[in-house]
C-alpha cells in the first residue's frame, strides 16, 4: 500500500466515479425540463422528453439489429432534427457516429463508408442520387435508413426502411449503453483534405463532454438558448453544439439550406439567439437588404470560425447588431479550441480597431490545456512579439484520439507531445494568436515571408470585391510573388489597376499582388477555397 | 490487440490527455486577463497576474520547505485574499489543502491537525488564542505561518514567519506541481458532525474541476462575476467557488465578518453580483432597515444552502430584488450537487407559490450523474408522489474520494454504490426532491411521521418568530410529540397560546407542537442548530 495517506482506502467506486458522456446532458434535460422544446423542424416541435424517448428507441432498435460498441453508424443529412437525435442515439447504442459531409461525391462517400466499416447508413432524400451510387460501389453495403422529411419533397427513398420505422422497432425503456471508459470513441469525422484520401478523426467521450461545456463558457451561454443550425452538423459534430444544447436544455432549430431569408425569418419567429457560421456565411448575411434585418429586437450572438474572418466582415455584422465571437480550431480539436476572448476595455476602441482585434484567433478556450506558437522543428515557443512566425500547437482534453487506422499520420500529428496544426501564426504581446497562413500558403518573395491572409484581408476592404484568394506565383527574380484571384461584386466595373493602386495605399509594396485574375474561386465541399488549384493556375500563368 | 478498430493505435498521450485540475483556470485567467482584478481586500486589490505569481511563489516556497505531494497544509483564516490564494497555491505545491472551521475550539483544531498530519498551518491573528492552544497540544507541531492582515489589528502573530515572508522565499518561475492523475486528492474538509470525532472528507482534482464548472452552469454565471465571500471558505472549499471565480476570471471580494452593513456596502461599491449564504444569513439581510438596501441598481444573485430555507426567507429576499437560487448538498458532495432548477413558467405564479417551489431542494446539478430518493435498505427508488419518504442518494463525479483514514465509515457511506446522504425527502411528480428531515430528526407521533422541517417552515411564517427548531419530545400516549424551541423577535410579546393557535390554523392538528419553549438555540460552529441538545432538553422536560 502507498505511504500517501490520501491513496489509502480511497479508491474509485460506483458512487464517486462515472465516465464523462454528453448523453448525461440529454438525460438531465429530459428529466428536469421534459416539456421544454428541444427540436424544431418547421411545425414539427418535440420536447426534451420526446427526443429522449426517441433516442432510447433508436438506440434499442440499433442494438436489436446487431449494432453495438465498436461498430460505426454513418449519417448523411442536412441540419434537421433526426441528425440532432443521432448525436445521442448512436452513442446510446454503443456505436460510433460518423456524420458525412453532404457535399461529397459518390467516390468520396464510398471511400468513407468502407474505411469506417459502417454497418448502418442513415440518409436523407436530398442526397439519394449520390448515396445510391456510393452504396453500389461497396462490396458489403450498410443497412440504409431513410429520413423522410415531409418538408423536402424531392429525391427518393432508397433504403430498406425509414428512420421512423427503425425507431418503432426499439423500446424506450431498456437500459442504453453508457461508456465505462471515457476514452471510448463517440464519433468519427473525416477531414476534407484538399489533397489525398480523407482522414478519419476519432473523438472520445471525454473531449465531447468537455468541449460541449467549453462552448458554453467561451460564448457566455446560460440555460435555454435557441440555437439555429447554420453550421453543418457534419463539421466536427456541429462543433459539438448538439451536446451543448442538451447541457443547457436549449432548443435546436433545423435549417436545411443556409439561405439568408429563412435565417432572418427564424431569428424573428423562433427568437433565435445563437448561431455559428464560417465568415462566408456572415458575408452573405451582410450582403442582404436591410429590410430583412429589421424587427430583430433581441440579442443575436454569432460564433464564426473555419477561416480567418476579414475584419470588414466582422465590422459589418456588428454594425447590424450581431455580437460576433471569433473562434478557431481544427477537426482534430473538436472544432474551435481557441477563442478570441473579449476584453471589456476594448469596447472603448472604434469599430475598425475592434474588428481588427476580433479577427485574431485568440487564446486557448477554457478547457483546452495549452496553446502555443512555436518553431515546428524545435517546439521552442516563438517570442510574443506579434511578428515572428511559428506554427500553432495545442494540447489537452479537446484533442482527438487520433486518425482511424492511420498510426503513422497519428504519430506525426502528435510528434513531441503536441498537436501540430499546420497553421502559421504570430503571437502578440497580449498572448493572442493571429494566423498568418497555412504552412503551405505562405508566399516567399525576395526572401521575405508574405502572409496571403494579410493581403486578402486588405483586399476584402475594397468595396467592389466579393471574394478573394491570394497564392504564390513563381517568379524568376523574386522567387515567388503574390497572385490574387478575385471575384468581383456582380455588376461592378473593376480593373486590375485600381486594385493594385488600392493595395499600394494599404500595404508594404513588396506584398502587393503582381498579378490579378478575375473569376470564380474553386472550393472544397465544405466551402474552403482550394488554394492548391489556384497555385497550379498561377504556375500555368507564368 | 483489440478487435475494436477504435481502440487500435489511439492511445492517450501528452497531446490529447491531461488530468483535470482547477489550477488550469487560474493559469488561463492570468494569461488571458492579466490585468483584471482577481482579489479585493479593502484597498488591497490584486490582478490575476499578481495572484498567479503569488501562488507560484507560495507553491515554490512550500516545496523548498519540503512540502510535496501527499503532505497536508492546513489553514485557519477568514474569507480574505490569502485564503483564496491558498486554494491554488497549496495544490500547486503538490500538497492537500485543509481549510479548518474558524469556530472550532482548540481541542477540535488539535484533533484535525493531528489526524490530517498537517506539516504547515497558515493562520490569522483573529484566531491566534485558540490556535496557539491547539498547536501546543500537538507532539509534533506544524510550521505555523501568520497572515498579517493590516485590516485586522487585534490578536497576535504566533508563527515562525509571515505569509508574505514565506512567499518571498519562493520563485515565481519554477514549474509547479500538476497532478498526473485527476484522482489525486486536492483538499481535505472535516465535517463538523453534531456528535463524535470530525470526519475528513477527501476531494479529488476531478471533482473540484467539474464542480467549479457545474456551479457556473447551475447559476447561469458568465465571465467576470464579482463574488462576495459571505460563505465561509472552510465550508466545502467555499463550495468550490474559488475555482469557479478563476474559471470565469471574476473578482473575489473579501469579507472578514458576515455583517449586513459591509455586505450592502460592498454590493454597492464593488458592484457585487453574486454571493452565497445559509438561510440564516438571508434572514439577517431580510431583517435590516430598508435604507441599507436602497441604491442597488444591478442584479444580485444569491445562492442559498446549508439548511432547508423557509419559504418566507426566500420570499423576503426576492421582494428586495435579490434573485435566489436554492441548492443542496453535503460536504461529501463538494457542497451543493442538487439545484432547484427554475422553470420559466413558474414566473406566472404568485410570490408565495414561487417561494414554496424554490424551497424544494430540486434536481441533480448539471455535473452530478444521478440523484434519487430511495428506501435505504433496498435502494429501491420511492414513487414520485410527493408523499412517500425515502433517503436521498447521489452518485457521480461530484462525490468525495472517501473519509481519510476511515475505511469502515467510507464503506458505509458508499454502500450499494451510492452515497448515503442521511437526509429524508419526498420525490415530487416533477422529479424535484424535497427534504423532510435528517433521518434522526423525524418525529413519530401516534405512528405518523411528522417532518420537523415542515412544522418549522410554518412557524417561520409567524411574524414574531425569529428562529425556531422543532424536535421530538417523548410522550406516553403518542410515543413522541413535536416540541418547538422558539427565539422570538427581540422586544415582541409572544405567547405559547398564540403560536399554537397559528399552528392549528396552518397544519394538520397532529403536527401541532404540544410544547413551546422560548430561548436561544444552541448551534454548532458552522451555525447549524444542534438538535441533539434540544432533544435532550425536551427529554428533560418530560
List the helices and strands and how they pair.
Two copies of one chain form a homodimer.
Chain A: H1 23-32, E1 37-41, E2 44-47, H2 48-64, E3 72-76, H3 81-92, E4 96-99, H4 106-116, E5 118-124, H5 128-136, E6 143-147, E7 161-162, H6 163-168, E8 185-191, E9 199-204, H7 205-219, E10 226-228, H8 236-239, H9 241-247, E11 251-253, H10 260-269, E12 274-277, H11 279-287, H12 290-293, E13 300-304, H13 311-319, E14 322-330, E15 335-339, H14 351-358, E16 363-364, E17 370-374, E18 390-395, E19 402-403, H15 407-413, E20 419-427, E21 433-438, E22 443-445, E23 448-450, H16 452-460, E24 465-475, E25 479-488, H17 496-506, E26 515-518, H18 531-541
Helix pairs in contact in A: 1-2, 1-9, 2-3, 4-5, 7-9, 11-13, 13-14
Describe it for me?
The structure is a homodimer of 542-residue chains. The first copy, chain A, is α/β, with parallel strands linked by helices and 542 residues long. Chain A has 2 domains: 23-364 and 394-423, ANL, N-terminal domain (Rossmann fold, 3-Layer(aba) Sandwich), CATH 3.40.50.12780; 442-541, ANL, C-terminal domain (GMP Synthetase, Chain A, domain 3). Chain A has 18 helices and 26 strands. In chain A, the strands form 6 sheets. A 9-stranded mixed beta sheet of chain A has the order 2-1-11-10-12-13-14-15-16, sandwiched between helices. In chain A, helix 4 (106-116) crosses helix 5, helix 7 (205-219) crosses helix 9 and helix 13 (311-319) crosses helix 14. The first copy, chain A, is globular and about 70 Å long. At the A-B interface, helix 1, helix 7, strand 16 and helix 15 of A face helix 1, helix 7, strand 16 and helix 15 of B.
Amino acid at each position: 500500500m502507498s505511504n500517501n495517506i490520501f491513496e489509502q482506502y480511497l479508491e474509485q467506486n460506483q458512487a464517486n466515479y462515472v465516465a464523462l458522456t454528453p448523453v448525461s446532458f440529454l438525460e438531465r434535460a429530459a428529466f428536469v425540463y421534459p416539456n421544454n422544446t428541444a427540436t424544431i423542424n418547421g411545425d414539427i416541435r418535440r420536447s426534451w422528453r420526446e427526443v429522449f424517448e426517441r433516442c432510447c428507441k433508436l438506440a434499442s432498435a440499433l442494438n436489436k439489429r446487431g449494432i453495438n460498441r465498436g461498430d460505426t453508424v454513418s449519417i448523411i443529412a442536412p441540419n434537421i432534427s433526426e441528425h440532432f437525435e443521432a448525436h445521442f442515439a448512436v452513442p446510446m447504442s454503443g456505436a460510433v457516429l460518423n456524420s458525412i459531409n453532404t457535399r461529397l461525391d459518390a467516390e468520396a462517400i464510398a471511400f468513407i463508408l468502407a474505411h469506417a466499416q459502417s454497418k448502418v447508413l442513415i440518409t436523407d432524400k436530398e442526397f439519394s442520387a449520390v448515396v445510391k451510387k456510393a452504396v453500389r460501389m461497396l462490396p458489403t453495403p450498410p443497412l440504409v435508413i431513410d429520413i423522410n422529411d415531409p418538408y423536402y419533397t424531392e429525391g427518393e427513398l432508397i433504403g430498406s426502411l425509414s428512420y421512423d420505422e427503425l425507431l418503432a422497432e426499439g423500446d424506450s425503456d431498456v437500459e442504453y449503453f453508457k461508456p465505462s471508459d471515457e476514452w471510448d470513441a463517440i464519433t468519427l469525422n473525416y477531414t476534407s483534405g484538399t489533397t489525398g484520401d480523407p482522414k478519419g478523426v476519432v473523438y472520445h467521450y471525454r473531449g465531447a463532454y468537455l468541449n460541449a461545456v467549453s462552448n458554453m463558457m467561451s460564448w457566455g451561454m446560460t440555460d435555454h438558448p435557441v440555437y439555429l443550425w447554420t453550421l453543418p452538423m457534419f463539421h466536427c459534430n456541429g462543433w459539438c453544439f448538439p451536446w451543448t444544447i442538451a447541457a443547457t436544455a436549449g432548443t435546436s432549430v433545423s435549417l436545411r439550406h443556409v439561405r439568408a431569408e429563412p435565417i432572418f425569418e427564424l431569428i424573428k419567429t423562433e427568437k433565435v439567439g445563437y448561431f455559428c457560421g464560417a465568415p462566408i456565411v456572415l458575408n452573405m448575411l451582410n450582403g442582404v437588404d436591410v429590410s430583412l434585418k429589421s424587427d430583430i429586437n433581441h440579442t443575436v450572438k454569432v460564433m464564426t470560425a473555419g477561416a480567418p474572418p476579414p475584419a470588414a466582415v466582422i465590422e459589418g455584422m456588428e454594425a447590424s447588431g450581431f455580437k460576433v465571437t471569433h473562434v478557431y480550431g481544427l477537426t482534430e480539436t473538436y472544432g474551435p479550441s481557441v477563442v478570441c476572448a473579449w476584453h471589456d476595455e476594448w469596447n472603448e476602441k472604434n469599430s475598425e480597431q475592434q474588428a481588427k482585434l476580433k479577427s485574431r484567433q485568440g487564446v486557448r478556450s477554457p478547457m483546452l490545456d495549452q496553446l502555443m506558437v512555436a518553431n515546428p522543428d524545435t517546439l521552442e515557443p516563438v517570442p510574443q512579439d506579434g511578428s515572428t512566425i511559428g506554427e500553432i500547437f495545442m494540447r489537452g482534453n479537446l484533442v482527438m484520439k487520433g486518425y482511424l487506422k492511420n498510426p503513422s499520420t497519428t504519430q506525426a500529428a502528435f510528434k513531441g507531445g503536441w498537436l501540430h496544426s499546420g497553421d502559421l501564426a504570430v503571437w502578440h504581446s497580449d498572448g493572442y494568436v493571429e494566423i498568418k497562413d497555412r504552412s503551405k500558403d505562405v508566399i516567399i518573395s525576395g526572401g521575405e515571408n508574405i502572409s496571403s491572409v494579410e493581403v486578402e484581408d486588405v483586399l476584402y476592404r475594397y468595396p467592389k470585391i466579393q471574394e478573394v484568394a491570394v497564392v504564390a506565383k513563381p517568379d524568376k527574380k523574386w522567387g515567388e510573388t503574390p497572385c490574387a484571384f478575385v471575384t468581383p461584386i456582380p455588376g461592378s466595373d473593376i480593373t486590375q489597376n485600381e486594385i493594385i493602386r488600392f493595395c499600394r495605399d494599404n500595404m508594404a509594396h513588396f506584398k502587393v499582388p503582381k498579378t490579378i485574375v478575375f473569376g470564380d474561386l474553386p472550393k472544397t465541399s465544405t466551402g474552403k477555397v482550394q488554394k492548391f488549384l489556384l497555385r497550379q493556375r498561377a504556375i500555368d500563368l507564368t
